[in-house]
């Protein structure tokens, strides 16, 4: 129908209006007379004629169907809609019959009145009365004429010689007001067209949802089949969870035909698990689960989180953990959530933990230090240009953990902190704090005894584009080397998550980074080449140039952000600023230096959110950390242990608690602002919100509702930007175990 043709995809030619012309013995053309034309070539003249004949027949059929579609109002609709439509038309027909009856009565009584008046005129009455009766008779005649003109009586189609094709269910015969008859006919015609259009939209929506659901199921099934074929080690296919890998659930026949439950085999050798000191939480993914992520508590449901935390702290004091409970195999339809989020601010959409990984954004920031040895080597460099090469490699290395990490980290609560003390093993220690909630912002500070300091404040902004999600970190990263005083700054590139709705998620990094040495003026320009299907370049390619203040190129950098970075020294000579120098540097293979290479992922990483060796240790419980530390966050701990339903409930509780705290701070800030003048006259200072650092408030100034505990906002002397800088005191408080200033956020 015409309504359907308006929704036809671009590039389609409607056969009903197509022009089919023959060019020569083998070529023919199909065109819509406008923008779309197909030039087709057959293998022979006979084959061409078969095509043309078939297309002409199809065109004739399409023209006929189009005419029938335009003329007919009997298109298929559901039985319920038909019944409702017929009921409405019956009601309309009944009302029209009532109007017809009233019309007949008006005509009948009008005729009787006129007859009576005519009889009065024949009587012998005084001349004055006769004149009055004549006037009344004239007015009655005028009323009848006006009535008939207004009602416009005419016979219904079908009153003579049969019922029309589109007549109402209740047959109307005799005489009926014309306007009412027209209204009824229009109601019949247009209501069916509207019903057809509505049904078409419903069918389209249902087909779209079914298609998306089917694609999601096929993707899940293929992914599980791939894992079952390639991940399991030899000899474990029929053992239902081997002693070699007690965390690994057996991959049985995971059919999508069972829409309600998925069952996984429990380990057969229970004694082996007990002798290995197996954590009960690690067996959680082996239990039967609802597809939507049901309440999985297992044997550990009777143990409080505090007791589990203390027990795990004892286990992790000796050595760093090398694995976490495997990710449960829940399926969740992303489209069912995202279709209700279009047009909303993405950072404010409450997402279930099913899309998360058991780490917070603060811990992801700390992962930037995975290749800290690059900064250790840079601190030993005597040349600032060589040092800049290692800083550039460190910058690229921070993206290596993202290549398979498609799950989102937990959004930290306001005031949440995360510490990583590796002073003894690696010579550095790091602290992060969530300093703002809207917009989300985290401050990070790391010190190393090898002579460098790294600090950054990152605000995350994101845009949902339908097919992909763009994540843009805002903020400057600072790296200062103590011995030389070299101060480097740079910003992060844009991260894009593709196939948000359908298909396998994959991540790409794109954009440019300029690393500046503010002491010497040296610069390094890094270019992250976006992935292109048609490009012959290596995927995830990164190129760079290290230049001195005059713009002369000294080193060329080449590699990928997920594997390695190489450095080529440019030989001194004329023309070193152009393409000739770059070509000569790449040809000089003996000048190549490997700056950085990615560490291999741990065994079975695909079942542990693709965590690196460092990431596996980040959420391990540690004693002595602050009460606000991410390791103590209950919903994150429940999610790591596979208890996703409980984690979702706990996540909602924490978010509601955070909202109440914010409202309380805002109310106190409003009261403090009103009392500003009173404080100027000597009134006491209003109470501080829990977790706010004491500051001096000038009289009459608005009271700041929240101030971070370990960081303070200052103007950076190098970049002239306002940023949160570590104020000190955390490690001293940890040594004393004095956490009285910490807010209660969990």
UniProtKB/TrEMBL annotation:
InterPro entries recorded: OSBP_sf (IPR037239), Oxysterol-bd (IPR000648), Oxysterol-bd_CS (IPR018494), PH-like_dom_sf (IPR011993), PH_domain (IPR001849)
Protein's membrane topology: Peripheral membrane protein
Ranges in coiled-coil conformation: 198-225
Classify the main location: membrane
- Write out the biased-composition intervals (Basic and acidic residues): 629-680
Q: Which GO terms describe its molecular function?
A: sterol binding
**Family annotation (Pfam families):** Oxysterol_BP
User: What keywords were assigned to this record?
Assistant: Coiled coil, Lipid transport, Lipid-binding, Membrane, Phosphoprotein, Transport
GO cellular component terms, semicolon-separated = cytosol; perinuclear endoplasmic reticulum; plasma membrane
Region annotated Disordered sits at: 236-257, 620-709
**Gene3D superfamilies xref list:** 2.40.160.120, Pleckstrin-homology domain (PH domain)/Phosphotyrosine-binding domain (PTB)
Q: Where is the PH domain?
A: 1-60
On the tree of life, the source organism's domain of life is Eukaryota
Biological process (GO) annotations?
lipid transport
**Location of this chain's protein in the cell:** Membrane
User: What family classification does the UniProt entry report for this protein?
Assistant: Belongs to the OSBP family.
What name does the UniProt record give this protein? Oxysterol-binding protein
Task: Specify the taxonomic lineage.
Answer: Eukaryota, Metazoa, Chordata, Craniata, Vertebrata
Gene, per the UniProt record: Osbp
């Amino acid at each position: 129908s015409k309504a359907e043709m308006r929704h036809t995809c671009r590039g389609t030619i409607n056969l009903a209006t197509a022009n089919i012309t023959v060019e020569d013995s083998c070529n023919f053309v199909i065109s819509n007379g406008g923008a779309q034309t197909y030039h087709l070539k057959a293998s022979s003249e006979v084959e061409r004629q078969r095509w043309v004949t078939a297309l002409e027949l199809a065109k004739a059929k399409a023209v006929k169907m189009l005419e029938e579609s335009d003329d007919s109002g009997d298109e298929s609709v559901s039985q319920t809609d038909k019944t409702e439509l017929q009921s409405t038309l019956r009601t309309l027909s009944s009302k029209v019959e009532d109007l017809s009856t009233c019309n007949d009565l008006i005509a009948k009584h009008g005729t009787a009145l006129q007859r009576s008046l005519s009889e009065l005129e024949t009587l012998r009455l005084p001349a004055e009365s006769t004149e009055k009766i004549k006037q009344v008779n004239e007015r009655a005649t005028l009323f009848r004429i006006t009535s008939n003109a207004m009602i416009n009586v005419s016979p219904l189609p079908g009153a003579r010689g049969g019922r029309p094709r589109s007549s109402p269910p209740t047959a109307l015969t005799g005489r009926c007001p014309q306007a009412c008859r027209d209204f009824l006919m229009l109601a019949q015609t247009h209501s069916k067209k509207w019903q057809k259009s509505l049904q078409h939209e419903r069918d389209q929506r249902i087909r779209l949802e079914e298609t998306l659901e089917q694609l999601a199921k096929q993707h899940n099934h293929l992914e599980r089949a791939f894992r079952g074929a390639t991940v399991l080690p030899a000899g474990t296919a029929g053992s239902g969870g081997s002693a070699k890998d007690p965390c690994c659930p057996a991959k049985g026949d995971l059919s999508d035909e069972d829409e309600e439950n998925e069952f996984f085999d429990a380990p057969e050798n229970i004694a082996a698990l007990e002798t290995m000191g197996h954590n009960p939480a690690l067996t959680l993914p082996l239990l039967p689960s609802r597809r939507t992520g049901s309440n999985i508590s297992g044997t550990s449901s009777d143990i409080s989180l505090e007791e589990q935390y203390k027990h795990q702290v004892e286990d992790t004091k000796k050595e760093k953990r090398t694995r976490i409970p495997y990710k449960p195999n829940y399926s969740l339809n992303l489209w069912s959530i995202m279709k209700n989020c279009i047009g909303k601010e993405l950072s404010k959409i409450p997402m279930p933990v099913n899309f998360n990984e058991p780490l917070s954004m603060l811990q992801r920031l700390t992962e930037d230090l995975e290749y800290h040895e690059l900064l250790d080597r840079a601190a030993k460099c005597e040349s600032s240009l060589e040092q800049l090469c290692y800083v550039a490699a460190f910058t690229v290395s921070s993206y290596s953990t993202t290549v398979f990490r498609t799950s989102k980290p937990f959004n930290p609560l306001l005031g949440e902190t995360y510490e990583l003390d590796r002073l003894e093993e690696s010579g550095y220690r790091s602290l992060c704090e969530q300093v703002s909630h809207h917009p989300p912002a985290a401050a990070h500070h790391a010190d190393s005894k090898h002579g460098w300091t790294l600090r950054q404040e990152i605000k995350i902004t994101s845009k949902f584009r339908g097919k992909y999600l763009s994540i843009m970190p805002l903020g400057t990263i600072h790296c200062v080397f103590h011995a030389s005083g070299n101060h480097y700054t740079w910003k992060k590139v844009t991260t894009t998550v593709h196939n948000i709705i359908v298909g396998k998620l994959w991540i790409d990094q794109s954009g440019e980074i300029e690393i500046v040495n503010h002491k010497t003026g040296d610069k390094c320009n890094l270019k992250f080449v976006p992935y292109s299907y048609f490009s012959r370049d290596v995927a995830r390619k990164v190129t760079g140039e290290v230049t001195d203040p005059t713009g002369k190129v000294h080193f060329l950098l080449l590699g990928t952000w997920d594997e390695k970075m190489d450095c080529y020294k440019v030989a001194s000579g004329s023309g070193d600023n152009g393409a000739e120098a770059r070509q000569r540097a790449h040809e000089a293979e003996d000048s190549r230096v490997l700056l950085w290479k990615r560490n291999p992922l741990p065994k079975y990483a695909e079942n542990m959110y693709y965590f690196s060796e460092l990431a596996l240790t980040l959420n391990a419980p540690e004693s002595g950390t602050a009460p606000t530390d991410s390791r103590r966050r209950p919903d994150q701990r429940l999610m790591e242990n596979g208890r996703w339903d409980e984690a979702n409930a706990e996540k909602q509780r924490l978010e509601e608690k955070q909202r109440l705290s914010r409202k309380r701070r805002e109310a106190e800030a409003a009261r403090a602002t009103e009392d500003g003048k009173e404080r100027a006259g000597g009134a006491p200072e209003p109470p501080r919100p829990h977790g706010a650092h004491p500051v001096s408030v000038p009289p009459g100034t608005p009271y700041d509702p929240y101030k971070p505990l370990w960081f303070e906002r200052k103007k950076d002397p190098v970049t002239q930007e306002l940023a949160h800088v570590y104020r000190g005191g955390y490690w001293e408080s940890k040594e004393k175990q004095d956490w009285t200033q910490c807010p209660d956020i969990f």
